[in-house]
Amino acid sequence: MKSANNQQFSVVIAEDDPSVRKAVERVLELEGYSVTAVNDGQAALDTILAKAPHAAVLDVSMPFLDGLSVCKELRHRGNRTPILLLTARHEVGDRVAGLDAGADDYLVKPFAVDELLARVRALLRRHTPSSSTATVLQLEDLTLDANRREVHRGSRQIDLTKTEFDLLHILLEQTGIVLSREYLYEHIWGFNFETNSKSLDVYIGYLRRKLEEGGESRLLHTARGVGYVVKPS
């Protein structure tokens, strides 16, 4: 059933398999999204830059530019369009590569239509600004500017990857509250990412080193057996 709420959202689909492309396009249109479909990576990059859609669904394996290259180029240009990658590869290493390239979520083929729609909705929820959401978050000398996507400790600017920034943002939004591993996986990588993988621990390690490399006090703490929390030192 078409949702009136979805009519305000535009989505770009890039998939070189005509049957998959047409099926995804049809499903999203039936849900009320405004859809632009292309069949290669270069066309995807050009269309996203020209149309500024609310989200993009990209196949990993495409002619001219693959989905990972499209993600990397968009992020390199400062484009923050939410991206869902589609791929036949199911290894965790492949998923991590996609997320490191700048994708927001990852869906393995074959997939259920309901799961595709749920992931698109989740992308749009996470990236739709809320008037009640603070754009600058601060804890002691740590400051995060969500609009500029900048992080500082005192006068020192900290360069973070997209995933590191998003992880810190979620933690700072709920300062003092222990966030479970499951919660963080769902909000950073999507609800179907394996929570027994070590990806989260790796990113927490990266983030801690960058936050403390100037000799600053620890703000990001482990709640053993539960998850992670940022709180005053």
What this model shows, in words?
With 233 residues, the chain is α/β, with parallel strands linked by helices. It folds into two domains: 124 residues, Rossmann fold (3-Layer(aba) Sandwich); 95 residues, Arc Repressor Mutant, subunit A, CATH 1.10.10. 40% of the residues lie in helices and 21% in strands. The chain is built from eight helices and twelve strands. The strands form three sheets. A five-stranded parallel β-sheet has the order 2-1-3-4-5, with helices on both faces. A four-stranded antiparallel β-sheet has the order 6-7-8-9, with helices on one face. Helix 6 crosses helix 8. It is elongated and about 55 Å long. The N and C termini lie far apart (51 Å).
As a whole number of angstroms, the C-alpha radius of gyration is: 18 Å
Return residue spans where pLDDT drops below 50 for at least 5 consecutive residues: none
The total beta strand count reads 12
Report the CATH superfamily of the largest domain: Response regulator
CATH architecture descriptor name of the largest domain: 3-Layer(aba) Sandwich
Order of helices and strands: EHEHEHEHEHEEEEHEHHEE
The amount of helix comes to 25-40%
Protein structure class: alpha/beta
Treating each run of at least 4 consecutive H or I residues as one helix, how many helices? 8
Query: So what's the CATH class of the largest domain?
Result: Alpha Beta
